[in-house]
């Protein structure tokens, strides 16, 4: 039986950052990830063709100068030199099968009349719709802005708490405003797994957690067992709820109240010469089968272009393929490679702050259980890392 100070379940950026802080605090740390690579929604897909290689983000794609906790980890991993700017290509709007700029779609008079509300209205206690339709005007919100907002959590976002979607955080002046890394976000995930004191076991689907003496015993689907003084859950809320059913029924039931959306992502890699679409950062198409198409044109490549289609759940494979070929304007035979990924994104609602306060109060009496993920103060990478940072403080107690 392998014995650890902390075993972390889930190797997305929440689990990876938790591992970083835990190992940094001198704890013997094991991270268990179900998939064959760590990273979760922070993992880039890597494609190799002969001597050419290309990465494509199938989840997160952009980091910002305001991501202070993430930057702390990037610095400690010696990755600052790998940071690169994103090419300035536009976010676009697909209407009647033609690409348009966002500005061309806005009702400018309505926008000018509404925008002063920015200085009067507070986000607290308001939903995304109730706040932003006053800032941009109702028609602009309904016809244009709403679709861009839906693309952020890849689900209808009208009812999200406005203060949990876009946050103003202090920016670091010495780093690029927005950036990625030469090898994609995956390169940061990989660098974290190599930090001293962190052991990572991929292909480890944790299926049960039970109490054992003063600690916990974890079992994986393949029958491996791990023992730990503390267990950290960095998985979607529904998975955390199931895994905690035996060891903390109250926390399990509380986690079970949260909802999440599944995003069916299809990454499409094509030879640059085969696509005529001008370079874009993303394509948003109102009320389409997908919430967004995020492109790799922000980091241009000599040979390939890549597009991640973030589909609604339940769309048939046939329909997805038809829509992909229509949007890219090329037949299936011209698609070089397809990669699939299932992302899980929380469906946050007003009242989440109260949910969060209750979570932390339950955790006060569960000193051996640490909870992190993208369903706490928000779903951005920085929210995940900040949560891991604050949870790791409890390790020291
Ligand atoms: C399409 C998309 C685009 C985004 N773009 C951005 C962006 O540009 N910038 C930004 O800041 N944020 C972005 N986000 C949000 C951000 O990427 C995510 O919220 C964040 O990466 C989630 O990290 P996580 O570790 O909490 O969860 P996940 O990445 O979902 O990781 C959870 C991990 O747990 C593993 N797991 C699940 N069950 C088990 C089990 N039983 N045993 C072991 N392992 C298990 C999963 O395999 C997974 O690897 C985006 C999200 C999506 C979906």
Automatic annotation (TrEMBL):
Entry keyword annotation includes Membrane: yes
SUPFAM superfamilies (alphabetical): FAD/NAD(P)-binding domain
Protein name, as recorded: FAD-dependent oxidoreductase
Keywords carried by this UniProt record: Membrane, Transmembrane, Transmembrane helix
Domain Amine oxidase: start-end pairs: 13-261
Pfam family, one: Amino_oxidase
Gene Ontology MF term list: oxidoreductase activity
UniProt keyword annotation of Transmembrane present: yes
Membrane-spanning segments: 6-24
């Amino acid at each position: 039986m392998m014995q650890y100070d902390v075993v972390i379940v889930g190797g997305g950026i929440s689990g990876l950052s938790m591992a970083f802080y835990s190992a940094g605090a001198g704890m013997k740390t094991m991270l268990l990830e179900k998939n064959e690579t760590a990273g979760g929604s922070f993992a880039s897909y890597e494609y190799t063709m002969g001597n050419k290689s290309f990465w494509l983000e199938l989840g997160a794609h952009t980091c910002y100068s305001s991501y202070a906790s993430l930057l702390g980890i990037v610095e400690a991993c010696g990755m600052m030199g790998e940071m690169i700017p994103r090419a300035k290509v536009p976010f676009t709007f697909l209407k009647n099968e033609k690409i348009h700029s966002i500005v061309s779609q806005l009702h400018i008079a309505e926008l000018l009349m509404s925008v002063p509300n920015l200085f009067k209205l507070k986000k607290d206690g308001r939903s995304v719709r109730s706040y932003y339709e006053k800032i941009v005007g109702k028609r602009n919100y309904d016809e244009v802005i709403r679709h861009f907002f839906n693309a952020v959590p890849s689900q209808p976002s009208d009812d999200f708490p406005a203060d949990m979607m876009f946050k103003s955080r202090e920016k670091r002046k010495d780093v690029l405003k927005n950036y990625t890394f030469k090898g994609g976000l995956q390169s940061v995930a990989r660098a974290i797994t190599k930090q001293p004191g962190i052991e990572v076991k991929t292909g480890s689907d944790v299926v049960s957690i039970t109490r054992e003496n003063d600690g916990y015993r974890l079992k994986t689907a393949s029958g491996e067992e791990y023992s730990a003084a503390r267990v950290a859950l960095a998985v979607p809320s529904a998975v955390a709820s199931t895994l905690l059913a035996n060891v903390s029924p109250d926390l399990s039931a509380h986690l079970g109240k949260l909802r999440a959306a599944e995003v069916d992502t299809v990454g499409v890699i094509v030879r640059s010469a085969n696509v005529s679409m001008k370079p874009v950062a993303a394509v948003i198409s109102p009320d389409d089968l997908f919430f967004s198409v995020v492109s790799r044109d922000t980091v241009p490549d000599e040979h390939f272009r890549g597009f991640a289609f973030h589909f609604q759940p339940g769309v048939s494979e046939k329909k997805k393929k038809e829509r992909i070929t229509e949007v890219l304007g090329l037949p299936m035979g011209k698609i070089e490679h397809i990669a699939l990924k299932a992302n899980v994104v929380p469906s946050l609602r007003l009242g989440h702050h109260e949910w969060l306060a209750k979570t932390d109060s339950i955790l006060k009496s569960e000193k051996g259980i640490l909870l992190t993920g993208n369903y706490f103060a928000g779903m951005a990478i920085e929210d995940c890392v900040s949560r891991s940072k604050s949870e790791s403080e409890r390790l020291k107690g």
